[in-house]
Structures are given as structure tokens and as C-alpha cells.
Specification:
CATH superfamily: Leucine Aminopeptidase, subunit E, domain 1
Number of strands: 7
CATH architecture: 3-Layer(aba) Sandwich
Strand content: 15-25%
Radius of gyration: 15 Å
Oligomer: single chain
Number of helices: 5
Number of domains: 1
Shape: globular
Low-confidence stretches: none
Distance between the termini: 18 Å
Bound molecules: ligand AR6
CATH topology: Leucine Aminopeptidase, subunit E, domain 1
Helix content: 25-40%
Length: 192
């Protein structure tokens, strides 16, 4: 049985946390998160998919964001741009850490990536945001560890202040990653 399209959810301080399998470019949330690189240059993976779906306007938006940031997006930080031709409000780009064995601050940096994306979304008054599994593709972060970090970071930020947010959605591309995130959600938030 495929889990494509099935949504599993928990509540956290009045905010729905949903976990589903799918393509982030097809989400109807106010914002989607891009697992970007510090140069904000189009890459492969989810970044490539978002760039293709959003079109050339996003190239201009990336360039402008990079200039605003003084040349680069530091690891663990987040910046938003317009959505190009996607029918959403914003794309929030974060540069997750490259996995280097786990002793180089990867956990803190990944926590920061999730937290900063939520802070940007709240600062912009957005109600819903969809995350891919940041850093677990090309950047090599082990999925089990990353899923724990992701769910804990989102839970902590929502407990501290949900702001305008009503839904945080994790959109996982493959069934294995979906299963790992579901287990993490279950561990940390209880009901799914
Ligand atoms: N929707 C949702 N998730 C996706 C999609 C999609 N359309 N496509 C891939 N994934 P990665 P990273 C999943 O490599 O590890 C880029 O070149 C994928 O299966 O996209 O943070 C950037 O420019 C995996 O589970 O991101 C950076 O240079 C997850 O998204 C670098 O890669 C993240 O994989 C960032 O690497």
C-alpha cells in the first residue's frame, strides 16, 4: 500500500502538525520551504524541483535575496522570496548543514534551520508552511536523526509561540522518509 496522499497529524499548541508523502511543489500551504545552499544558487533535489516549478522569476528573487543578505545565506538561517509562478504566498529558503559525522554542530544547525523558517513565516503573518526533509538528501544527514530534530524543533518553536501559524506540514518524497518522520511524530507528539 502506498501512503501517497494520506495525512497523519498531531496538534501542538493549537497548530496542526501534518506528515504526508508527496511533492512539495504541489502543496497548497501559504509557504513552502526550500532546502537551499548558502549561495542561494539553484541546485538539484528539492531545490531543483522548486526552481523548475517556480520559473525564472524565482531566479531574480534568489539574486535579490542574496544581495540583501550581503552575498550568502549562512547555514541554519532562512530567507523568504516570492513564489514565482507557484500559487502560494512565499518560498522560505534555508541552508541546512552538510553532514560531517555529527560532531560539527550539525544538530544545532538543523534545529536552527527549522526554527528560523518558522520565525520568518510568523513574521510574515503566514498561516501554513510545508517543509521537505532538510539536509537528508545531497547533504547526507541521516534521516532518523534528522526527523527527530525536525519534529522537536518545530514542536519547541510552536510551544514557545505559534504566532500566526495554524498548520506545519512535513512533505516527504519517499516512503522510507515518510515512515521515519511518522515514527518521530509519534514519539514526540503522541497521537498520529
Ligand atoms: N518534494 C519533496 N521532497 C523532495 C522533492 C520534492 N519535489 N525532491 C526531493 N525531495 P535534497 P539537502 C527530498 O538533496 O540534502 C541542493 O542542490 C529528497 O528526497 O533536496 O538539504 C541544494 O541547492 C530528500 O528527502 O536537500 C543544496 O546544494 C529531501 O528532499 C543541497 O541540494 C532533501 O534532499 C541541499 O541538500
Amino acid at each position: 500500500m502506498t501512503s501517497q496522499g494520506m495525512i497523519h497529524e498531531a496538534m501542538c499548541n493549537g497548530v496542526r502538525i501534518a506528515v504526508t508523502q508527496g511533492d512539495i511543489t504541489l502543496q497548497d500551504t501559504d509557504a513552502i520551504v526550500n532546502a537551499a545552499n548558502s549561495a542561494l544558487r539553484p541546485g538539484a533535489g528539492v531545490d531543483g524541483a522548486i526552481q523548475r516549478a517556480a520559473g525564472s522569476e524565482l531566479l531574480r528573487e534568489r539574486e535579490e535575496a542574496r544581495r540583501r543578505l550581503g552575498g550568502m545565506l549562512p547555514t541554519g538561517e532562512a530567507v523568504s522570496t516570492g513564489p514565482g509562478q507557484l500559487q502560494i504566498k512565499r518560498i522560505i529558503h534555508t541552508a541546512g548543514p552538510v553532514w560531517d559525522g555529527g560532531g560539527s554542530g550539525e544538530r544545532e544547525a538543523l534545529t536552527s534551520s527549522y526554527r528560523e523558517c518558522l520565525r520568518v513565516a510568523k513574521a510574515e503573518g503566514l498561516k501554513s508552511i510545508a517543509f521537505p526533509s532538510v539536509s537528508t538528501g545531497i547533504y547526507g544527514y541521516p534521516v532518523e536523526a534528522a526527523a527527530q530534530v525536525a519534529v522537536e524543533a518545530v514542536g519547541a518553536e510552536l510551544e514557545a509561540d505559534p504566532g500566526s501559524l495554524r498548520e506545519v506540514r512535513f512533505v516527504l518524497f519517499d516512503e522510507r522518509t515518510l515512515g521515519v518522520f511518522l515514527a518521530a511524530l509519534n514519539d514526540i507528539c503522541g497521537e498520529t
